[in-house]
UniProtKB/TrEMBL annotation:
This is LacI family transcriptional regulator/LacI family repressor for deo operon, udp, cdd, tsx, nupC, and nupG. InterPro entries: HTH_LacI (IPR000843), Lambda_DNA-bd_dom_sf (IPR010982), Peripla_BP/Lac1_sug-bd_dom (IPR001761), Peripla_BP_I (IPR028082). Residues 6-60 form the HTH lacI-type domain. CDD domains: HTH_LacI, PBP1_LacI_sugar_binding-like. Keywords: DNA-binding, Transcription, Transcription regulation. Pfam families: LacI, Peripla_BP_1. It comes from Mucilaginibacter pocheonensis. PROSITE patterns: HTH_LACI_2 (PS50932).
């Protein structure tokens, strides 16, 4: 038996009204009487009517959909951001399309094209480590579609951004290591293409300067966040004439891989070498020894990004505000830096 997709025509026939009245009622037209709107909605539920979002978007010029683009789902950071963002979007009555770029620029460009094809009303984005050209994001601006960056932001575009205080977090991490007696603190840094990496590097450098610790360029290694390379860099640091007694890593996945490499070598953590990460990934409390790290309000980041996006969506393009929200981090001290906690 051939299935029948319920349409506004079926609702109109059931109520004895025109399909245009049903259409206006379903899209919340203020000119429709409240009792008519209630009757239409009730009948739509009774008939199990599923809205044709594409058709509605043609009428209202809105898809009632928000896009979310993240660089990866390997760590717990971005899934938690998405949870916060989706909750905020749903509470505001919006559907969500989520895509991840697998840390590749080409996939990110393809993801933006999918968002445009689906006529999203706005997007929130965290860029890939490869992204150096932003033309695919600027298309949204030209089309009058709001865009908000979070975590990995585009400094070239005057749009809202949500970040944590990367500089302050890195500064606190290094000062903590210094307070435990460490003096040769290495930094496994992120790529210079990410402003987040630059801010954390600057926090690291300024904490050393404040405490009169000489900067040793041999202890600073920027890398492209490919976890498989961590073993190479850690072994390189340990083979220096004056190896480090601590490592501050750009993020928790890097720090956790560092712990695994050092344990395999046979060094004691934190007695021989201490380690600090950044983000408080769920694995950081499970690994042995547990990882000292900077905790970020991850779900709050997603929620804030959606709040800024909705604000843009409710304004005329000429009144858009390039607001930047900076959230604080908290130092979580665990066994990778303080042996007495064991």
């Amino acid at each position: 038996m051939k299935s029948h997709q319920i349409t506004i025509i079926d609702i109109a026939k059931a109520l004895g009204i025109s399909k245009s009245t049903v259409s206006r009622a379903l899209t919340g037209n203020p000119n429709i009487k409240s009792e008519t709107m209630e009757a239409v909605i009730e009948m739509a539920k009774k008939l199990d009517y599923q809205r044709n979002l594409h058709a509605i978007s043609l009428i209202t010029r809105k898809s009632n959909t928000i896009g979310i683009i993240v660089p990866e789902f390997l760590s717990s950071y971005f899934p938690k951001v998405v949870i916060g963002a989706q909750a905020a979007a749903t509470a505001a009555g919006y559907n969500v399309i989520i895509s991840q770029s697998n840390e590749t620029y080409a996939t990110e460009v393809a993801n933006t094209q999918v968002m445009l094809a689906n006529q999203v009303d706005g997007i929130i984005v965290s860029m890939t480590k490869e992204t150096l050209n932003y033309d695919h994001f600027k298309i949204f601006q030209r089309k009058g579609i709001p865009i908000v960056f979070f975590n990995r932001v585009c400094d070239e575009m005057a749009v809202p951004k949500v970040m944590v205080d990367d500089y302050d977090g890195a500064f606190k991490a290094v000062e903590h290591l210094l307070s435990t007696g460490k003096r040769r603190i290495a930094h496994l840094a992120g790529p210079n293409s990410l402003s987040m990496s630059v801010r954390r590097l600057n926090g690291y450098l300024d904490a050393l300067k404040k405490n009169n610790i000489p900067i040793d360029e041999d202890l600073i290694i920027p890398y492209d966040l490919t976890i498989g390379k961590v073993k190479i860099y850690v072994n390189h640091l340990l083979q220096l004439k004056h190896p480090p007694d601590a490592i501050f890593a750009i993020n928790d996945p890097t720090a956790i891989e560092t712990i695994l490499v050092i344990k395999k070598i046979g060094l004691r953590i934190p007695q021989d070498i201490a380690i600090v990460g950044f983000s408080n990934d769920y694995i950081s409390s499970i690994i042995e020894p547990s990882l000292t790290t900077l905790s970020q309000p991850v779900e709050k980041i997603g929620e804030t990004a959606i709040t800024l996006l909705l604000d843009q969506m409710n304004r005329n393009v000429s009144d858009w505000k390039a607001v930047t929200k900076v959230l604080k981090t908290d130092l979580v001290i665990r066994n990778s830096t303080v042996a007495s906690l064991l």
